[in-house]
Design brief:
It is a single chain. By secondary structure, the chain is α/β, with parallel strands linked by helices. It folds into 2 domains: 4-119 and 352-359, Enolase-like, N-terminal domain (Enolase-like, domain 1, 2-Layer Sandwich); 124-340, Enolase-like C-terminal domain (TIM Barrel, Alpha-Beta Barrel), CATH 3.20.20.120. Helix content is 40%, strand content 18%. It contains 13 helices and 13 strands. Helix 8 (231-240) links the parallel strand 7 and strand 8 (245-247). The chain is globular.
């Protein structure tokens, strides 16, 4: 039995590769929480989570002052036990973003150790359903881009063989959203998937109205149309439209997903490893969604989510938003429109240690 003998965390700032805007915010930078765990048998596990510009030091404080000391001496392969022990110790701040982000950084490092101990890549250790998953592009669909630029990006994504594009919506008028999307649909054809994302910017009534305007465009899904804690609004929208409703990136517990799925409010589940608290609860959400016959299309973190989406039967898409290129030596492999899960032992992320050190701010 291998025991954890050291645990450390750092905060690394990674600048965004392109201007990223949606209906409520801009992606300022990726505050990246990196956790390193070492064991007495020589394993070194690296895990991470993130924010898009604020709160990173609060998460770092949670890690350093409360969580990391508790993992010293723990069995490196007892992932479930460690996760539950850490979660139980954070009852005063759970369920919430800071706690979940901190737990995720530790849990992903634990899974890295576990995979190393088993001699397996993550996609196999977590389930091993298949090696690759279709990938769609978000990077060309930000809200500040005009219609010609959206069209150019969508056409280029289709030429590259990607399996769809996501376009941000939430303009002041529904007509403007429709015009932008119609231009993209005309350019890519009727059989190319288009997803839309409102980033929680609409009221329940406006979401229903706007979905009706968008239905003729045959969209793959409408994402986060109303605030993530508005379960009733999602239920009413799901009952009123033929467009699948996608939710999950702003949910922080398995029980929240259970409530949405049981109410018929989630047609697509977009669980995010960092925001749900790690790989351990991510897999629970994925299997829960499978029980409801709902696909999983995880939010962001493509370098990690490719392995998890490949691990489960209902993993349907990986979202293409490159953000780790500045601190890794290799990039996500894409072949024939599918993201390929790394076959190296562990999480499969080839960290550039010098780059991480250069970006460290705390």
């Amino acid at each position: 039995m291998a025991r954890i003998i050291t645990a450390d965390a750092q905060l690394v700032d990674i600048e965004v590769e392109a201007l990223r805007t949606d209906a409520i915010q801009s992606f300022v930078k990726q505050e990246t929480l990196v956790v390193e765990l070492e064991t007495d048998d020589g394993r070194r596990g690296t895990g991470y989570s993130y924010t898009i510009g604020t709160g990173g030091r609060a998460v770092l404080s949670m890690l350093r002052e409360h969580l990391l000391g508790q993992v010293i001496g723990e069995d490196a392969d007892s992932v479930e036990q460690v996760w539950h022990r850490l979660f139980a110790s954070t009852r005063a701040t759970a369920v919430g973003a800071v706690t979940s982000l901190a737990l995720a950084a530790v849990d992903t490092a634990m899974w890295d150790l576990r995979c190393q101990g088993a001699g397996l890549p993550l996609w196999q250790a977590a389930g091993g359903f298949r090696r690759s998953v279709p990938v769609y592009d978000t990077e060309g669909g930000w809200l500040h881009l005009d219609a010609p630029t959206l069209v150019e990006g969508a056409v280029e994504s289709k030429k590259r063989g990607l399996r769809g594009v996501k376009v941000k919506i939430g303009k002041p008028s529904g007509g403007e959203d429709v015009a932008r999307l119609q231009a993209v649909r005309d350019a890519v054809g009727s059989d190319f998937p288009i997803m839309v994302d409102a980033n929680q910017s609409l009221t329940g009534a406006e979401a229903i109205r706007r979905a009706r305007l968008l239905e003729p465009l045959d969209l793959e899904w409408i994402e986060e149309p109303v605030p993530a804690d508005d379960l009733g609004g999602h239920v009413r929208l799901a009952r009123s439209t033929s467009i699948p409703v996608a939710v999950g990136e702003s949910m922080y517990s398995v029980s929240q997903f259970r409530e949405y799925l049981a109410a018929g409010a989630a047609g697509i589940v977009q669980v995010d490893v960092a925001r749900i608290g790690g790989i351990t609860p991510w897999l629970k959400v994925a299997h829960l969604a499978e029980a409801f016959n709902v696909a999983v299309c995880p939010h962001f973190l493509m370098e990690l989510h490719v392995s998890l989406a490949a691990a489960v039967p209902n993993g349907r898409y990986v979202e293409y938003i490159p953000q780790l290129r500045a601190v890794t030596r290799t990039e996500l492999e894409i072949c024939d429109g599918e993201a390929v899960a790394p076959d190296t032992v562990g999480l499969g992320i080839d960290w550039d240690r010098d780059a991480l050190e250069n970006g460290r701010v705390a």
